[in-house]
Amino acid sequence: MKRLLAAASLLALAACSAEEAPADDDPMAVHRSLLVLDTHIDTPINFERAAWDFGDRHTLENDIVQLDLPRMADGNLDGGFFDIYTAQGPLTAKGYADALAFARHRSDVIDRVIADHADVISPARTADDAERLAREGKLIAFKSMENAYPLGEDLSLLEEFYERGIRLAGPVHSVTNQFADSSGDDGKWGGLSPLGREWVKEMNRLGMVIDASHSSDGAFDDMLELSATPLLLSHSSPRAAFDHPRNLDDGRIRKLAAKGGAICMSTIYLSPMNMTRARATLFDQYEHISDLSPAQQAELVRKWRELNKTEQLWSTTFEQYMTALLRVIEVAGVDHVCFGADWDGGGGFAGMEDITALPVVTQRLLSAGYSHDDIDKMTGGNVLRILRAAEAARER
Ligand SMILES: [Zn+2]
User: Could you tell me the distance, in angstroms and rounded to a whole number, from the CA of residue 83 to the centre of ligand 1?
Assistant: First the structure.
């Protein structure tokens, strides 16, 4: 159900959708009828930029972001998990305190920006919230936490983040920390640390979904074994498509599915990451883009676009992406796939540069023979099912 439809046509669509889904030969109509969520949205990195507004339409020519409210309407992205990403720092009292202050602030900023656009988007804390907002024609803002580093060694802080509305969290980012080995670093724990094992229990107790993206294989195995509720991989690709530790192998995808979890297909690591020095310098500036003046932001955007002309971060093509996606669906099954492209966190590639590409993915899934209901599970239903499983564990 789309917010841009007039109330009358919304009612008409609601009336007919109970009876008949849109004809499969009209991909855009099918796409617009789906509940479409993305499980890892890094756009909040941009939320404090001077002279920048999430409600404005930005383009690939004049800005760096891949997702804003007008383009969510274009791509029929109903919402998703707005992420509190905290860079890994030292495992010291000072490091933890700084990270905690950062994460609290980022959480507040997300709340403020969503509240500033309350006419089109609202916070969601439960699967029911998401479905209600979709019915009301509103966009859906869940919150998530990438890297549990800000908790330090104090697991009681997790409840604070639950109260702040976070419903999805991963223990680690690309550097091994106090909770878990990272897929991007040397192992220290052989999976989860003793504290990481306690973190899993606390996540289950609170009713938060565990996000295993970025975790090492060993940490994934530990979480799969220990968690009382299904895992989600908020932005991961299959290792069969590109052999990289950040990706998940078929055996683990099957085990994840067997326990009710889902892998949210990413657009990253489907080809080697071309992180040249020039790109790394720009990425570092991007992570702190909110500290830049409008003129400095414009200069960063100009350099980013200029660099894209000579080298891309990813050499992935849309066909490679679709091949990988169709294979993940085959391995996991339609009940265990979702979408988390890593928009504004390093995701996207030439041919799929922002969220306006999403209808084409639906079109290709229809051509591959997947039904409206299959696709609806993958774009949103599976995520809500996993959220409900976590909610039920909290009630128990
Ligand atoms: Zn990430």
Answer: 10
